[in-house]
Design a protein that fits this description.
Distance between the termini: 60 Å
CATH superfamily of the largest domain: SPOUT methyltransferase, trefoil knot domain
Strand content: 15-25%
Shape: elongated
Number of helices: 7
Structural class: alpha/beta
Helix content: 25-40%
Strand order of the largest sheet: 2-1-6-5-8
Number of domains: 2
Number of strands: 10
Radius of gyration: 24 Å
CATH architecture of the largest domain: 3-Layer(aba) Sandwich
């Protein structure tokens, strides 16, 4: 995959040259480039923004700078042009999977008050948000999107199918992990994980993922693909929780 980022602060992308993102580039899975938006300015002050029509605070990124910049970077390709924006689709694992199908994507990072609306109308094909909050600029959001997408590319994580076992990959949170030592400060490792019975381990992990999701993110269970047995387990846990709450209320 090739990823191009249009930004006012290229130096903020130093983390892209560390850890798995660096390895992805080194192994040829990722081609990454930043493009300084100021390179498309024509005045001596390299002006990229101006005051908004109608008044109000803040500065707005100029359409006559951003559109030529995006068109120059995109060229003749049909790569999606994605605006980092709190107004966009909220990033999920399924959206990351969708974006991972592209051979190329172009991310546009905003700053100041926002974008001239005509930028959206002329060149933007998608908008992505990483949550219902506002950042000072889009660079951090862009790196989150890139990381979530690139790690899904075949071969990037090294372990085949590794991303398929992550939280949210199958609609559930990931099961607990353990490694050596087998005992630490009175806490041990579940015997099933040391049994060598891979079928039983898989079943235990699935049940633990289900229980963890039920306890921490029950909203995810609405759309998760579950068996009849798993739904019965959920009903059992709900009933047990209600009984415990009733007992605690009676005790008080």
């Amino acid at each position: 995959m090739r990823v191009d980022v249009l930004t006012l602060f290229p130096s903020m992308f130093a983390p892209m040259h560390e850890s798995m993102m660096w390895k992805a580039q080194d192994r040829g899975f990722l081609e990454f480039a930043t493009h300084d938006i100021r390179n498309w300015t024509t005045d001596r002050h390299r002006t990229v923004d101006d005051t908004p029509y109608g008044g109000g605070g803040g500065m707005v990124l100029k359409v006559d700078i951003l559109v030529p910049a995006i068109e120059a970077v995109r060229g003749d390709s049909e790569a999606p042009v994605i605006l980092m924006s709190p107004q966009g689709r909220v990033l999920t694992h399924s959206i990351a999977q969708e974006l991972a199908q592209h051979e190329r994507m172009i991310l546009v990072c905003g700053h100041y008050e926002g974008f001239d609306e005509r930028i959206r109308e002329l060149v933007v094909t998608d908008e992505i948000s990483i949550g219902d909050y506002v950042l000072t600029s889009g660079e951090l959001a862009a790196m989150v999107v890139i990381d979530s997408v690139v790690r899904l590319l075949p071969g990037v994580l090294g372990a085949e199918g590794g991303a398929d076992r992550d939280s949210h990959a199958d609609g559930l949170l990931e099961y607990p992990h353990y490694t050596r030592p087998a005992a630490y400060r009175g806490l041990g490792v579940p015997d099933i994980l040391k049994s060598g019975n891979h079928g039983a381990v898989d079943q235990w992990r699935r049940e633990q993922a289900l229980r963890r999701t039920w306890g921490k993110r029950p909203d995810l269970l609405v759309s998760a693909e579950l068996t009849a047995k798993e739904r019965a387990l959920l009903a059992q846990w709900d009933e047990e929780e209600m009984l415990n709450e009733t007992k605690d209320h009676d005790d008080n």
